[in-house]
């Protein structure tokens, strides 16, 4: 079975570990390069993207992770994790760094100007029934490159049409938090991506 890690520097690590365990994956926490090296796939949780990037520097895992992503490591980023996968960030903190890999422009705290957090049901490409999406000071994707598949958009309200889930090869990212709310289908999609990549 492939080894799936959860980047455990900051954020909602436990929630991701729980969903992965429910899916029968025995996840590992990742703070050090040796732990990253053992992974066939990695989840970057929600939390605070600037803090996570700084801690990645402190733990000397920033460059190794950036390189692994370039080499094709499957990664699933939720919320702050989506920001950290993005090649370009709008409304970022001064000097905000990302691991990159995903050819998108995200706007940080994009929904935050209207409302700090919200919940809604979204149609997500590849899933038969809508997914319950919890958005907490969430980014949206403002622009996607050619190789990026849009999986979900906000259906209505002031943010109607905004992109909130994308995939590019083995990289998957959501603005929302599938790790909260008891729906494991998006994680299942990711586990399938990891299985495909390591087959
Ligand atoms: N607003 C956070 C950031 O910019 C992301 C919020 C979240 O992950 N729930 O990093």
Automatic annotation (TrEMBL):
Enzymatic reactions: aldehydo-D-ribose 5-phosphate + D-glyceraldehyde 3-phosphate + L-glutamine = pyridoxal 5'-phosphate + L-glutamate + phosphate + 3 H2O + H(+); L-glutamine + H2O = L-glutamate + NH4(+)
Protein name: Pyridoxal 5'-phosphate synthase subunit PdxT
NCBIfam families (alphabetical): PLP_synth_Pdx2
Keywords, alphabetical: Glutamine amidotransferase, Hydrolase, Lyase, Pyridoxal phosphate
UniProt GO cellular component terms: cytosol; glutaminase complex
Assembly with partners or alone: In the presence of PdxS, forms a dodecamer of heterodimers. Only shows activity in the heterodimer.
GO BP term, example: pyridoxal phosphate biosynthetic process
Family: Belongs to the glutaminase PdxT/SNO family.
Gene expressing this chain: pdxT
Organism annotation: Nocardioides panaciterrulae
Enzyme Commission designation: 4.3.3.6, 3.5.1.2
PROSITE patterns the UniProt entry points to: GATASE_TYPE_1, PDXT_SNO_1, PDXT_SNO_2
Residues annotated as catalytic: 79 (nucleophile), 177 (charge relay system), 179 (charge relay system)
